[in-house]
Amino acid sequence: MKHVSVFIFIALVMLLLGFANAAEPTASGELSSSDFSESDRCTECHGITYSQWDDTMHANAYIDPFYLKEFDAASNDTDGLVDSFCSRCHTPIGVVSGEIPPADGSHLSEIAKEGVNCDFCHTVSASNGTGNAPFIVTPGDVKWGPFKDSESAFHESEYLELETRAEFCGMCHEVSHPVNGLLIDDTYPAWKNSTYAEEDVTCQDCHMTPGITEFEANPGRSASGAPRRDHISLHRIVGGNAFMTEILNADNEKEMAIERLEQAATLNMDSPEIANRSENVTVQVSITNSGAGHNIPTGVSEIRQIWLEVKVTDGEGREIYNAGATDTRGEIVSAHTVYNNVLGDAQGDATLSFWLADRVLSDNRIGPKETVTEEHTFLLPEDAEYPLTVDATLKYRSAPQELIDHLFGEGVHEVPVIDMKEVSAVIYDPATPPEERVPPESTPGFGVLATVVVLLIVYLFKNR
Predict the structure, then answer these.
(1) Which residues pair with 290 in a beta bridge?
(2) Tens digits of per-residue pLDDT, 163-217?
(3) Where is 312: in which H helix or E strand?
(4) By the 8 A CB rule, do 137 and 124 touch?
(5) Are 361 and 350 in contact (CB under 8 A)?
(6) Which helix (H) or strand (E) holds 127?
(7) 180 and 210 Cβ atoms separated by less than 8 Å
(8) CB pairs under 8 A, 24+ apart, for 441-448?
(9) Cα–Cα distance between 96 and 138 in angstroms, integer?
(10) What is the distance of C-alpha 19 from the center of its chain?
(11) 333 forms bridges with which residues in the sheet?
C-alpha cells in the first residue's frame, strides 16, 4: 500500500509538472511565420470581420509610426533588451518565429508586419496568466473562438472560453518592466479592481460591440453560411487613438475613437448665479470617469494627457480668465491639473521613456466611476459687462506636442486635441431680477417657434 501511495504521489507530481510545462508561453523562435495564414486569406468567409479589423490599431500594431520611433529609441537605450519584449504584442508572429531581433525589422516577413493578425489571435489556445504577453499559440488547422457549435468547411473550430474573458485582452494590456517589474500599462489591472469586473462587464462588452460604454448586441453571422446569432463581436476594437488613426488615414477608426473619448467622462459645474465686480469668483468643476472600465487616461499613460480648460468671457466676449489653453507651440498653459501618471528614472527624474523608469513619481489618473473636482478662482474686473459665461472643456491628446516634435521633427505632425466633454454656466449682475436671468443666446429655437405656430393654427381653426 505504501508503494502504491508513493507511485500515486510521483504520478501527481509528474502530472502537475506536465501541466506546468504545457502552460509555458510560446517562446521566441519556437515557430515559423509560415505556420500562420495571412489575414486576407480569411476574407473568403469572414469578409465583414476582416473589413472591421483592417484599419484598426491592432492591424497597424507594428507599422504604427509612433510605435516604431519609440521602439527604436527603447532598443538603442537598452542595448536591445526590450526588442522581443515590446515586439511580443506589436508583432507576435515576428517574435514566436524568431524574426525579431534584429530591431530594425529587416528580417520580418510580410505576415509578421500584419501586427495582431487574424490567425494569431485565433490560434491562441491558452495563456499563462496576464501581463507581458504570456500567450500560448498553436498554429494549424484548428482555430479557437467564442462559440461552442462553430463549424467550418475550411478549418476545424474549437471553443475557447478565454476569448470571452477580459483575461484575453489582459495578456497584452498589462505591461510590467522586464527588469524591475514596474507596472507600465495597468489597463487590465485597473479593470480587474473595478466594479466592472465585479459585475462581469468585460473589455469585449464595450470594445467589441456597437455600444460605446456598455454592451449592445450586434446580431449577425460570423462567416458566410454561418448560422445567424444574437451577437457577433465587432473587430474594430477602437480605443482613444485619434492621432495615429489620422496619420494612417483610418478615418472611420479616428471618428470612433473621438466618439469613445466623448463618452468616457461627464462634467458638472458648481457656479454662482450672481457676482459683484471687483470680487473674486470661484467655480468648481467635477470630472467623473463615467464610461471607461479602466483609468482615464490609460495605456502608456505617462504620455497621455487629459486636462480641463476653464474659460470666462464677459457679455462683450472679452476673455477674463483662462486656464488650460494651448499656446502656438502646443504647450498647455496654466492648467490646474494634467491627468496622467509621471514615471521616474534611476536618478529620480521624470521621464517619458518608460523603458528607463523604475518608479512612479505621481499618479492622478481618474479611476473607473471616480470623481475629481477642480476649483477655479478669478477676479471679476470693474469694467466687465454682464452676463459672464463660464465654459469648461475636458480635453485629451495622445502625447505632448513636444514629444512628437522630438521624435518626428518640428511641424511634421500636429497632435489633435479632442474635446471630450463641455459644460457651461452663466453669471449675472446681482441687480438683474431672477426672471430676467436667461442666457442672451437662449432665444426660442425652431422647435419652439414651430410649436407656437401649430398652436396658433389650431386656435384659429377652432375659432373660425
Answers:
(1) none
(2) 999 999 999 999 999 999 999 999 999 999 999 999 999 999 999 999 999 999 9
(3) strand 305-313
(4) yes
(5) yes
(6) strand 124-127
(7) no
(8) none
(9) 11
(10) 35
(11) 325
Pull the grid cell for residue 436.
430676467
What pLDDT sits at residue 439?
61
Listed residue (263, 217, 216, 215) closest to 239, CA to CA: 263
The pTM assigned to this predicted structure is: 0.89
CA distance 46 to 199: 32
Question: In which residue are the cell numbers 489597463 written?
Answer: 187
Say whether the peptide bond before residue 368 is cis (omega within 30 degrees of 0).
Answer: no
Q: Which three cell numbers stand for residue 27?
A: 517562446
C-alpha cell at 72: 527604436
The cell for 156 is: 476545424
Q: Give the pLDDT band of residue 74 (cuts 50, 70, 90).
A: very high
Long-range Cβ contact pairs of 76-81 (< 8 A, separation 24 or more)? 77/353, 77/355, 77/356, 78/355, 81/178, 81/179, 81/355
DSSP letter for each residue of 374-400: EEEEEE--TTPPSSEEEEEEEEEESS-
pLDDT value at 3 more than 70: no
Find the largest Cα–Cα distance for the chain: 110
Residues 6+ apart with CB under 8 A from 19: none
Q: Rounded distance, CA 348 to CA 426, Å?
A: 45
Distance from the Cα of residue 450 to its chain's centroid: 42
Domain ranges (residues) in the chain: 26-257, 264-436
**Structure confidence by residue, pLDDT tens digits, 250-268:** 999 999 999 999 999 999 9
**Dist CA 386 CA 204 (whole Å):** 49
What is the chain's Cα-based Rg? 27
CATH of domain 264-436: 2.60.40.10
| Predicted confidence (pLDDT) per residue in 381-440, tens digit | 999 999 999 999 999 999 999 999 999 999 999 999 999 999 999 999 999 999 888 764
Q: What DSSP designation does 165 have? A: S
Determine contact, residues 335/307, Cβ cutoff 8 Å. Answer: yes
Pairing of strands 280-288, 266-270: antiparallel
